[in-house]
Every structure is written in structure tokens, then in C-alpha cells.
Amino acid sequence: MNRREERDEERRREAQSALGRVESDSETVGSSSFARVARQTRDHFAAHDKQGESDRIEVWGSRIGRAAGLIFTVALVIYLALAYL
């Protein structure tokens, strides 16, 4: 490869890298915050972070524990609202 082809290849790689950054940034800005938070919440309660685990009991335990925590939190908020408002 001669010097000119090397420079062209380097510029092409830089351009591809810049386009990749622009695409990832625009995806973050372009999607609504509500949709992103809803997707993260759904993934959290579905225990997507535990999907790679080989132990299915741990995955289901995480799902049950997270659902129980949500139910407890909602019940506590309702109790406190009724008791002190």
C-alpha cells in the first residue's frame, strides 16, 4: 500500500468512527426519556441482567423479589398517605 492509500484508509476509519458516534448519540437524544426509563424498568423487573445465569431459580428469585419489593413500596406509600394526609 502506498502512502496515499494508507491516508485514505485512515480517513475512512475515522469517518466510520465519527458516524458511529453520531448514530449512538442521536439514538440517545432521539428516543424519549419516558420510553427509555420504561424499557429499563421492564428489563429490571424481568431480570434481564440475570438471563445469562445457568440457574433458573436465581432468575425467578430475582423476579419474585423485585415484584415483592415493588408491592411493598406501593403498599407503604398508600399506608403513609392514608395515615398522615
From TrEMBL:
Bias kind Basic and acidic residues: ranges: 1-15
Region called Disordered, residue ranges: 1-33
Transmembrane segments: 64-84
Keywords of the record: Membrane, Transmembrane, Transmembrane helix
Protein name per UniProt: Uncharacterized protein
Provenance organism: Breoghania corrubedonensis
Source species taxonomy: Bacteria, Pseudomonadati, Pseudomonadota, Alphaproteobacteria, Hyphomicrobiales
